[in-house]
Design brief:
This protein is mostly helical and 197 residues long. The protein is built from 10 helices and no strands. The longest helix is centred in the middle third of the chain and has 28 residues, at 78-105. The termini are far apart.
């Protein structure tokens, strides 16, 4: 599908989440909220989370798969981590466009603060690039690191406020939210996209 695939994928995710969480397993964030509110809540969190998952998921083999570039004397290895984060940021902008279009089609309000969301996503991408650089360096020495990355990302998804609000995690264990560097970034992204704050 080429470039169109970049818009088809987030649209398909939104449709699947919409079907599952409004019809099959209706989820409400709070009393009186509609399941559709949860779909937008989840999708807003996934915009930020996917930046991390896409960037960090490539980390263990990043240097090995680009060995030809790294053999050049003047090519910095950090550029690979930055490029990976920048690519994930661009993909997130497409997800953001799908989010905005879906909100408008659903008759929901779209706050002007959505224009600031790319800045928060850039902060997430910068954080993810730093983690990627560290893991890529470690992956050069520990070849089995690639086997541990997918389960670590799955654990990170459940420990981060992506699927549920941060206050639900904080009610169980306040230190989990305080120790998670993604929590404030995801809260800021949702505040911009959903609350207009």
């Amino acid at each position: 599908l080429g470039a169109a695939g970049a818009l088809v994928v987030p649209s398909a995710f939104l449709l699947v989440y919409g079907l599952v969480f409004t019809r099959v397993v209706p989820v409400r964030l709070e009393e009186g909220a509609s399941p559709r509110d949860y779909v937008f809540f989840l999708f807003a969190g996934l915009i930020g989370w996917n930046v991390v998952a896409e960037t960090v998921g490539r980390a263990p083999s990043l240097f090995a798969s680009n060995a030809g570039l790294l053999r050049k004397a003047r090519f910095p290895g950090s550029a690979l981590a930055i490029a990976t984060g920048a690519t994930a940021w661009l993909h997130a902008l497409l997800w953001l466009g799908v989010f905005a279009a879906a909100r408008l089609v659903a008759g929901e309000s779209l706050h002007a603060t959505v224009l600031l969301a790319p800045l928060v996503i850039a902060i997430v991408a910068t954080f993810a690039s730093a983690v990627t650089l560290a893991l890529a360096t470690l992956g050069s020495f520990v070849r089995d690191l690639g086997e541990w990355t997918p389960p670590a990302l799955a654990l990170g998804l459940f420990l981060s406020p992506v699927l549920y609000p941060a206050d639900r995690i904080g009610a169980l264990s306040p230190w989990l939210v305080a120790a998670n560097p993604l929590a404030p970034m995801l809260r800021a992204l949702r505040a911009l996209l959903l609350a207009g704050e």
